[in-house]
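Reviewer 2 asked us to include a model.

Predict the structure of this chain.
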Amino acid sequence: MAYQVFDTTLRDGAQREGISYSVVDKLAVARLLDEFGVGFIEGGWPGAMPKDTEFFRRARTDLKLRHAILVAFGATRKAGLGVADDPQVRALLDAETPAVCLVAKSDIRHVERALRTSAEENLAMVRDSVAHLVAEGRRVFLDCEHFFDGFRHDPAYTASVVETALAAGAERVVMCDTNGGMLPSQITAAIGALTDRLGIGAGLLGIHCQNDTGCAVANTVAAVEAGVEHFQCTANGYGERPGNADLFTVVGNLQLKLGLPVLPDGCLEQMVRVSHAITEIANIAPDTHQAYVGAAAFAHKAGLHASAIKVDPVLYNHVEPSVVGNDMRILVTEMAGRASIELKSRELGIDLAGHPEALSRVTKRVKELEAGGWSFEAADASFELLVRSELPGQDVPRPFALESYRVLVEHREDGSVVSEATVKIRVRGERVIATAEGNGPVNALDEALRVGLTRHYPQLRTFELADYKVRILEGSHGTGAVTRVLVETTGDRGRDWTTVGVHNNVVEASWHALVDALTYGVSRTAPAEV
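Predicted model (structure tokens):
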């Protein structure tokens, strides 16, 4: 039995309030999901959203997926329009993904009131669209929107949508709890009634659950227990309203509680790392009480000494925390284990196994920094610089030494606001003073640094500040709160890297991230000398 883990973080999950992925973000999330071992990654809606169209274009060259298949999402052809003439269907083909997921109305009330078409035309739209894409060599999944509500209202019609899609060549037909109002017993009953009515196995079906009753994970697990082999989820449960079924909780339950082989070997222990990295990219604080991956998932409140934090896991935890990349703890701050540090370093091409003293120093330093609000989950470049600073002969020198910097913000009479930054630095023995304006203090600092450094490091002309995120850290308040800054930089040949800075002054936090960004970028193209 081959289970299909279908992730829709980049499409359905992106509908969560407060999330706005850039194309660079989407590519980074896709890489993380692939590392976690999902089978399918739904990347977005090409043709309907320019950003998604660009994502699929870049994915052809920028994404090297080991486990996942990229999926383009779209709707069936429009009513009254030939499938070959529908620009949205053409956009799905132009995305050049091996698989396509179509959405169709399966509740007769939505067909008549929302689409304003007939029951017969809706079935023809499903049949024509699926058959056309299959004929073009695509694997096709069909999402039956409002399936459970429609099946309760008119089971015969909703079942006919499923039957039509399968007959046209759909690989799986997905039952969507679009309004999120179902309970596990209702999910199980509907699957049994549908398979009996059509005389099919539940393995031809899929499940997609929203979380409006707080049952999305339970409903998904119930569907799999009823025989469904294709399940759609989002990382950390991101999605519209209360969200979707949480990918990590669903996978953890299926693999660890039911013993189902839903992920490739070696992927489950990446759960915490991938979950937290995606929260950083989404610029959303991690849910500390999230099942399996939360900082409190295996935390115990007890009057024990820190040296006794690890006891028999059978007595305290429902699973061994390490199998999902987590750890048991009694401390308030996060713990960074030696194993996770060593694994992350290895991913970056640094072998710490032969340097136990350096590994201990890096682990200690990471713990200290994380206690102060730093996070390296989505800042690989800063983490690599930290690791190399503890290895003999591998330290990456800064391309300049700072004497001072100053930033001014001027509100002019015409209402415009302009920032000006001046940096005083030493570059290869030369004292340099550079000034530049920007649309904000961080942009001005970035521009001033480039003015001062470009003569010595011309490759800086190819660097671009692609994204900038600021988060007020949990537990801090008001204008004096500690902030964490993430800076994404793009270099030549489309290479991207992310750096982090933390300080109670947002400009200083940004400075740390900017300096790391330039140091890392320069180290990849030319030796830095001060």
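The first helix runs from residue 23 to 36. Residues 336 and 367 are 6 Å apart (CA to CA). We have added this to the supplementary material.
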